[in-house]
Fold these 2 entries.
Entry 1:
Amino acid sequence: LGLGLFLAAGATWAFFEYVVWATTPSELVGTWVVTEGPDQGGTVDFYRNGTMVAKVNHQGREGIIEARIRVEDKKLYVTTTHQQTGAVGTRVQTIKLLDDSRLVLEDERGMSVKMARAK
């Protein structure tokens, strides 16, 4: 009986973790390294729960950007909150390429960022 309850609890958790709470496409989840474009050398971590953490070079210092994300069709919506003012802003980027090892995003101004999946 105890083993049955344990297995049922595990299956329920897995269902919620990988299906219900997973709002980010599985192909996008993981750590990406910026190989071309602004913030070259920085990293972006996408999580299943619809969050993102980017580590970028900001005038010689590491800057950290935390955001909520959502993906609709080929559009990536990145919503951030300014730490000092509390202002909320959303940027939309088009996913030009997404496969197992490469990610290419293009912003509203036509600027591209190329990334490679971290090993």
Entry 2:
Amino acid sequence: DEPSVIITQWPCVLKRDYNDEDKSKFGTAFKSQCKVIDEDCIGCKLCLKTGCPSLGFNKENKKAIINKNTCVGCEICLHECPTGAIVKEDK
């Protein structure tokens, strides 16, 4: 409910460009993405509180969604999901 700041060295979709040094430093990032397993998502929206712009919410089925065009595989949402509905998949 209050403004917050996330300080991280892990890649984030909020960072506009990544060079080859960044990509080699973060090993598994950029090689995988996260996805939502609809059957396991309870629609709690906790993942949305991470502030990741790749995350959204489908109002029709009341489930979280991840934009595959912008997800860099940082796994922040994966760690926030209380039901394990967000999983990692190879690109």
